[in-house]
Specification:
The protein is of the alpha+beta class. It is 52% helix and 9% strand. It has a 4-stranded mixed sheet. Helix 1 packs parallel to helix 3. The mean pLDDT is 95.
């Protein structure tokens, strides 16, 4: 059995999908976290791409959230065996993951006190989020999973991000009933339910409270 060590900042963000997948596949792992402001600048050089999350797999660094989650799903039999299905699933995985770019810039702008940039980046994310959700919605099968008759790592990955983004844009996920059902179904997995109750509170950097609404006031 491989030994896993997850290294990430003390944030939910791009690390949360990895945590959820690790928990659902039921493997033992440890996590090392560090503060984005106090520790990350001096530790960045430890990582080959100067980015995290990183999953240490028997001493080797594995980078990129989507790559890590796909590896775990395929390694631990929580993945589709059909190439075309996997490819179509990856479309929505990458589309949802892309939102972290504009959302991250919005959060950084807030810390920097740049209210205008914060408003613009939050607005861009808010506009794109329903577009991504609509594409996930039409891929959910009658069994409630994404392009599958049984749960795969993709469902866990998507639900983890929806759990985060529902806090930034309350009510948006609920406009897509199949997405909402998927989110709740994964959240109700006992180990995920326990994690959501016990996980650390939001780091101030990513706390949803106080984000500036888009200038046009759209919801």
């Amino acid at each position: 059995m491989m030994a896993y060590l997850l290294k990430y900042m003390s944030l939910r963000a791009r690390g949360e999908p990895v945590r959820w997948v690790l928990k659902v596949i039921g493997v033992d792992y440890t996590e090392e976290t560090f503060d984005i402001f106090k520790e990350w600048p001096t530790r960045k050089h430890e990582f080959k791409f100067r980015k995290v999350p990183v999953l240490m797999v028997d001493g080797e660094q594995l980078h990129q959230t989507t790559v890590i989650c796909r590896f775990l799903g395929e390694r631990h039999n929580l993945a589709s065996g059909d190439l075309w299905t996997i490819t179509r699933q990856m479309e929505v995985v990458e589309a949802l993951h892309d939102l972290t770019n504009s959302m991250g810039m919005a959060l950084l702008a807030r810390i920097q006190g740049n209210e205008e940039r914060q408003r613009v980046m939050t607005g861009l994310t808010e506009v794109q989020f329903p577009v991504v959700l609509s594409n996930i919605e039409c891929r959910i099968t009658d069994r409630g999973w994404i392009l599958s008759q049984q749960m795969t790592w993709v469902d866990v990955f998507i639900a983890a991000y929806l759990d985060v983004y529902e806090n930034y844009f309350p009510g948006v996920v609920g406009r897509f009933p199949l997405c909402e059902a998927l989110r709740r179904r994964v959240q109700d997995i006992p180990i995920i339910k326990t994690w959501r109750q016990e996980r650390p509170a939001w780091h101030p950097f990513e706390d949803p409270k106080g984000l500036v609404a888009p200038s046009d006031g759209s919801q």
